[in-house]
Amino acid sequence: MLDWLLKRKLSPMAEALATEYPLVAAGQGGILSGTHVASHLGWRPIEALAVGDMALTFDHGMQPIVDIHRETLLLTSGAPNPLTCPVYIPQDALNNRAPLWVMPNQGILIESDLACDGQGDPFVVVPACALEGYRGIRRAEPETRLEIVVPRFAQDEVIYLEAGLLGFSVSPRDLLSFDTSAQPDLYRVLQPETARELVIDMITEESVWATTLPMGPGGHGAAEYAAMV
């Protein structure tokens, strides 16, 4: 592990991976319509869910949806707004069977030994915007009209999106005064800068790992995911 940490320190990767948009904290978030959610009725498009429907959660099994926030955003021409430009997550980047878009402040639960080293827990929630550059994740506007859906539960939960991606859902509260440090420790929600540092470490580790594996038919290991130094 010290080897790749040294490589990270000596390489310009952190500067090269500077995000084009400012980071935002994980908050209300939002998932674009068309994304499938694991529910008591099977895999359902998120826009088809209603209050009272049951969704499969990461820690508490099937839980009823107590509120659903729906919003339509019309994107204007010109420079993208950093608060509304969605994050595109390619197929298989985070165990998702299909590509999907989420809002930049959508929390994503990830598992990493690096998080365990730094935070004492391998599972942490990061804002989607902090994942830019990891396995092809990037900002991308799919169209000019965005249909955003935010399911909420009685407490903070994590739900399954497109098979294996883990989306964080905050319980109904005054989101204008949302303070992750004041919430119960159901999930460890990282601040944007801490989350970005973790993601850069994850990219660096995969890059070093990929270049040390024997060459196969597809190149060095998971080269399609690795950001090469």
From TrEMBL:
Domain Hedgehog/Intein (Hint): 32-162
Pfam families: Hint_2 (PF13403)
Protein name: Hint domain protein
Domain of life: Bacteria
